[in-house]
Write a structure and sequence with these properties.
By secondary structure, this protein is α+β, with helices and mostly antiparallel strands. Helix content is 35%, strand content 26%. The chain is built from five helices and twelve strands. The strands form three sheets. A five-stranded antiparallel beta sheet has the order 1-9-6-5-4, with no helix packed on it. Strands 7, 8, 10, 11 and 12 form a five-stranded antiparallel beta sheet that branches. Helix 2 packs antiparallel against helix 4 and helix 4 runs antiparallel to helix 5. Keywords: Membrane, Transmembrane, Transmembrane helix.
Length: 363
């Protein structure tokens, strides 16, 4: 049914050189020195510090204006405008830097610029673009195969990306910590002016605790995302047909020691139905086959772990199908179990045509 590759694409005895952690990456030619994880975390912490410093300065400005107008109107001077411009600039630089680092987490160097929006743009069945010769209930293929691969013909898009979860965690952490530092600035100015705000000072404690907790969770999630890295799947033929055999290339980026790495060919059935007044959705895997299983691999941050293998669609397989209430979908699922990182799953969609169908239609 399938034939795993005999040899990896790079020498199995190659071991990464032991380096001391560096908080900042330094580019040397086409590669970067230092550990990828610590470089990513260090650069993110640097830009986060800029953002938090700007938030603290902005809180000082708000407090100065508030307490000054309570006593007598004042005209902002050179120092006021300097502090305001510096605070806004630090907030902008910090936000831009952290956003850039999050978008670059786990991306391969040659695909980094196009990774962030790839999965969100996939639309399996855009009903308005089907022609009269198309198969109306077969998922749309054009946007799945529009990305060429570097090793094989097509690079499959991933449906679930860690970028958006990481971005949401960063937004929550920065919101809490920025709010806490802004309130701290207001509290400091109120004490200096002899008008302490007791309630505000008390509220700073739980807000700061929440900010520290959310920021810690963000850093942990950032380390996990940078450590595991991006998974790439490329395929030689697409779409597939029942009984067809094709070649598959997988690459795993990051810096981790994986206990096991598996690639599965999975067929799922999704049903949507009404039960009373509720609309229920059930998903069930009707076919699952392990097409690649490797144990004990080490991923070098300067070179991805790569492997080629072949898979075969079962001759009696049901083709990909989609309707308003039912669907049959095929996936190549990557499952890695690492240490110290948690296990992860990455799903890559493939389309299986009915028997005898050709790719001449505008799929």
């Amino acid at each position: 049914m399938f034939r795993p590759a005999a040899l990896p694409l790079h020498h199995p005895d190659d071991t990464p050189m032991i380096r001391r952690p560096r908080l900042l990456n330094k580019k040397r030619g086409s590669r970067r020195s230092g550990w990828q994880i610590w470089g990513t975390v260090g650069e993110t912490l640097f830009f986060a510090a800029l953002f938090l410093l700007g938030s603290f300065g902005f809180g000082l400005i708000i407090a100065i204006v508030t307490f000054a107008t309570d006593q007598a109107p004042v005209t902002p001077g050179f120092g006021f405008w300097t502090l305001l411009i510096a605070s806004i600039s630090l907030i902008f630089l910090g936000t831009s830097g952290v956003t850039y680092r999050i978008l670059g987490v786990g991306a391969s160097h040659e695909r980094r610029s196009a990774l962030a929006k790839r999965a969100a743009e996939i639309e399996l069945v855009p009903r308005g673009k089907l022609g009269k010769n198309d198969l109306p209930n077969v998922p749309q293929l054009k946007r799945i195969t529009e990305s060429p691969g570097t090793q094989l013909a097509f690079r499959l898009p991933t449906i679930a990306s860690p970028i958006w979860n990481l971005a949401a965690s960063a937004a929550l952490a920065f919101m809490w910590t920025g709010c806490a530092l802004s309130l701290l600035g207001v509290s400091i100015v109120s004490i200096v002016e002899g008008q302490p705000r007791v309630l505000l000072t008390i509220l700073i404690v739980p807000i700061s605790a929440a900010g520290i907790w959310t920021f810690r969770r963000f850093i942990i999630q950032l380390k996990k995302s940078a450590g595991i890295g991006l998974s790439i799947v490329e395929i030689s033929n697409h779409p597939l047909q029942p009984g067809q055999t094709c070649e598959v290339y997988v690459a795993q980026y990051g810096r981790a020691a994986l206990k096991s790495f598996q690639a599965k060919l999975v067929c799922e059935e999704l049903s949507t139905f009404r039960q009373g007044t509720d609309v229920r959705t059930e998903k069930h895997a009707v076919f699952e086959e392990i097409v690649l299983a490797i144990s004990g691999i080490t991923i070098d941050p300067n070179q991805p772990w790569e492997r080629k293998f072949t898979l075969a669609v079962p001759p009696s397989a049901m083709h990909s199908f989609q309707s308003p209430h039912n669907s049959i979908s095929w996936w190549i699922v990557i499952h890695g179990e690492g240490s110290p990182w948690p296990s992860y799953f990455r799903r890559f969609p493939v389309v299986v045509l009915p028997h005898g169908a050709t790719t001449a239609t505008n799929l």
